Amino acid sequence: MKKLTLEELKKIKEKAQAELQARTSEGKDKIVVHMGTCGIAAGARETLLAILDEIEKRNLQNVVVTQAGCIGLCEYEPLISVQKVGSPKVLYKYVTPEKARKIIVQHVINGQIVMEDVLSSE
Amino acid sequence: MPKRAHILICAGAACISAGEESFKSALEKELKNANIFEEVKIIETGCFGTCDLGPVMVIYPEGIFYIHLKPQDAKDIVQEHLLKGRIVERLLVKEVELKKPLPNINELPFFKNQVRIALRNVGFIDPLNIEEYIARDGYSALGKVLTEMKPEEVIDEIKKSGLRGRGGAGFPTGLKWELGRKAKGDEKYIICNADEGDPGAFMDRSILEGDPHSVIEGMLIGAYAIGAKKGFIYIRAEYPLAIKRLTYALEQAKSYGLLGENILGTDFSFDIEIRIGAGAFVCGEETALIASVEGKRGMPRPRPPFPVNSGLWGKPTVINNVETWANIPEIILKGANWFSSLGTEKSKGTKVFALAGKINMTGLIEVPMGITLKEIVYDIGGGIPGGKKFKAVQIGGPAGGCIPAEYLDTPVDYESITSLGAIMGSGGLIVMDEDNCMVDVAKFFLSFTQDESCGKCVPCRVGTKRMLEILDKITDGKGEMRDLEELEELAKVVRNTSLCGLGKGAPNPVLTTLRYFRDEYIAHIRDKKCPAKVCTKLIHYEVIREECKKCSICFRNCPVGAIFKDYDGTYVIDQEKCTKCGICFQVCPFKAIKKE
Ligand SMILES: Cc1cc2nc3c(=O)[nH]c(=O)nc-3n(C[C@H](O)[C@H](O)[C@H](O)COP(=O)(O)O)c2cc1C
After folding, report:
1. Is B82 in contact with A67 (Cβ distance < 8 A)?
2. How confident is the model at residue A71 (pLDDT cuts 50, 70, 90)?
C-alpha cells in the first residue's frame, strides 16, 4: 500500500465514521419496526429489509433502525414508527415494503408525514 | 447492506477466559439460522472493564448491555432481541438493591461515573481495525503535530496540560520530554514501558489489547517532540494477547505509512519494535528495563545519569508508561486547557485503576483525579459484597500502602495519597473487608517484593528477607513486642538505602499497616490471636458439642482424618492432626463448628 497523506487520512476517517454511526442513537432520526411474532407473520421482515436497502441506496447516515416487540395492535401490522429529531413520533400501519420506501423518502428525508398511512401520532 | 445493529462483544482476556469465543460462535450460528447474519455486524473489542460480569456484550444502536453470556443464550438474543425487539431481561445487569434491571450500558453506575481518556476507545472499537481507530480521530493528532506544530510547541502543550507519568512515580511528562529534546546526541530513543508487574494490575494490558494504536500514536508524537527515530515497546511474555494485537497494529500502521519513512508525506520518520520481557517485576524499573532491552540481565543502576541523558545504549531515551502514551493524542487534539480542567491542582486528568478484592464490581475503571476513594468503592465499585464491613484499600501495588476507612473521603491525587503513606502507583486498587488480616496483607506484599528483589543491593536483598522473617514470627504466634520496633527500624533502613524503587517501596505495606492497624499486630503478639481469623497458626476449629447433630459430614470431608467420633456419637477434632484447612467449618450444615 502506498504512503498515506493527510488528505487520504481524512477520507478514511469520513468513510469509517459513517460505519461507526451505528454505535450511537443520540441526535438521530429513529425508525422502529415492530417485529413481534405477529409482525413477522404480517411481513415485517420484508419491510425491515426494504428500509435497510433504501437507507443504503440513499446513503442516509443520520438514521438508526431498531426493532421492537408487539404493541397489541396486531391487526394493523406491519407497523413502523418514525421519529425525526425534535419531532413527534408517528406510527404507520400496513407498511408494505413499497410504503416503507415512500415513508423514507417523504417523511425521513423531506419531513412530510405520509398522512394516508398514519395510525396515530404523539 | 447497512448494518442495523452492531454487536460489540468484549474480547478482553477475562471475557475470553470466561467463554467469549464459544458464545460468539453460537451467536454467529443463530444469526445464520435466523437469516439475519448480513444485517448485523459483530465486533470483538477490548476490555469493557466489567470483568466480573463476563462474557459481556452491547447491542447498538440501543446500547443494551448483556452479561454472563453462555452459548445457549445466543438463541434468545437473536430470536427475541434482534428479531422481535424484545430485550432479554434475564441477561441484564440488575440494580443491587432494587433488583431493577438496567438495560442501557450508559445507565450503569459503573460506567456513568467514569471519565474515559486513556480508555476512550477500549471496548468501543475493533482493536484489529485501524480504520475504526481513525474514525475516532485516530492519527489526527499526529497529523496536527506534523503539519501545524513545532516540536517545542508539542512539548509546551504537554507541559501545560499537567500530565504526569502514570507508571508510578508521577514525574511531569512534558518536563521529561523537554529534557529529552535538550539532551545532546543525534540518536535518541523512545520507550513504552508495558512491563506492568504489580500483582492484580491489568490497566496497561487492557489498553494494549483494546486500543493499541493510541499507544503507537502517542509514541509517534513523543518521537517527533524529542527527535527520536526509533522506539521500543517492552512488554512481558505473560501478555500473549496484548503482544498479538500490538504486533498486528504495528504492521497495520506500517502498511498505512504511519510508521516508517516520511510519515504522512513529511520528512519525519519513526519505527517501533517490540521487546518481550520475561516478567520480572524489577524489569519495570526504567534502568533495569533498559538493560533488559540491551540484552543484559535486568538489574537497576544508580541514577543519575537519568535515561533522558544516558539511556538505551547510552543515548538519550524518553521512557513513559503505556497509559501516559495513550493520553497524549487526546491532549494534542483537545488541548492542554481541556485536560488540565480535569482533576486537581497538581494532579490533572484521569487515572485508570484495576479494582480488585472485596468489591462488587471488580474490573477496570478510569476516573478523574480528585475523586474520593469512597466514590470509587461505593458509587462505581458497588460497595462490599455480602454486607461485610469495609476495612481498607491497598493502593499503589507492592510499593503502595493500606488506607483505612477513616480516610475514605481522601481525594485520589498524587499528593493526598502520598501523605497517607501509600502511593498512587500504576493503578492497582485492592479493597479489603473485615475478613482480611492486615498483618497477612503486609506479609503478602512483602513476600512478593522479597521474591522479586534482584539481589544487587544489600538493603533490599537482605533487609526484605529479615523483615519477612519477623512477620512470619508474628503470624506464627511467636512474636514479641520489641519485634515491632525492630520491624519499623528495618523498614526505614531498607526504604532509605535501597538502590531502586523496588527496595525503597517494599516497606510501605508494612509501614502503613503498622501505622493504621497496629492493634492487629499487637493482638497477634500479645493475645496470640488473629482478629480476622486468617493466620492459621493462631486459629483453631472445634465442634460445639451441643450443636452437633452427629451427621458425620465433617468426618467424611476432613482430608487428613483429623475428626473422630466420640463415645456419645458427636464428633471431635484432633487438634494435633488438624491442618486448619477450614473444610469442616464450610460443610457443616448446622453451624456446629466454631473457628476461633
Ligand atoms: C520496581 C519498579 C517497578 C516498576 N514497574 C513499572 C511498570 O511495570 N510499568 C511502568 O510503566 N513503570 C514502572 N516503574 C516506573 C518506571 O521506572 C518509570 O518511572 C516509568 O516507566 C516512567 O514512565 P511514566 O513517567 O510515564 O510513568 C517501576 C519502577 C520500579 C522502581
Report:
1. yes
2. confident
